[in-house]
Amino acid sequence: MSKYQSIFQHIRGEILNGTIPANTYLPSESELQQQFGASRDTVRKALSLLLQNGYIQKEKGKGSLVLDTDKISFPVSGVMSFKELKETMHEQVITHVHRFEKYPVTPRMKKELGMDSGDMYEVMRIREIDGEKVILDIDYLNAQVIPGLTIEHAQDSLYEYIEGTLGLKVSFAKKEIVVFPATEEEKKLLDMHEYDLLVCVKSYTYLEDATLFQYTESKHRPDKFRFVEFARRTV
Q1: Other Cβ atoms within 10 Å of 183 Cβ, number
Q2: Of 82, 78, 81, which Cα lies nearest the Cα of 93?
Q3: What count of Cα atoms within 13 Å lies in the side-chain half-sphere of residue 90?
Q4: Stronger pLDDT, 75 or 154, i.e. the higher one
Q5: Burial of 135 (0-12, 13-18, 19+ CB in 10 A)
């Protein structure tokens, strides 16, 4: 683990266990440099990671405000595997591969994946967090662009296989957030309790050469999550 990741994990842990309360400010960058024996650039990288993951908000002239962390934060703007996201989470997380299939591209997925013909993968995974099944991830991948995918890759990390084994570079994604009623199947797969709605993040993910290779529907139980996005006024 790099130095800035170690600082991120330390501060994140203190926020989660209440040592650093919500609605208070972190020490200044200079104080954090002294506390961790780190350079300004390293401290800023750690703060940036806290910002991206929804633990702090920068306030001009005041510093880094600690946000309420009652819900799990999912950065909308980043392109991140769930395995990478899991490493920033305090909760116990288990992935269950519910479905892994390869078959000819369907008419619907021809449109979503921009394919005319060929095979695609469908990967359905259930994310269990602290003993509750609260996320249903369904990934559709172009098998011509991403060959050789296995259920073992799905259990571990698709992006590790794509980038580490195939040597491809995952670059950017277009995302859309919608809310809709859960189907009976989804209610059986997830621990929905009294909730009838799911928050769905639809993602179209591209390689560095702008090749669309993946369409994802990530469906979340609404009470457990907040989706974090930071926007900058440029006018």
Answers
A1: 11
A2: 82
A3: 18
A4: 154
A5: buried
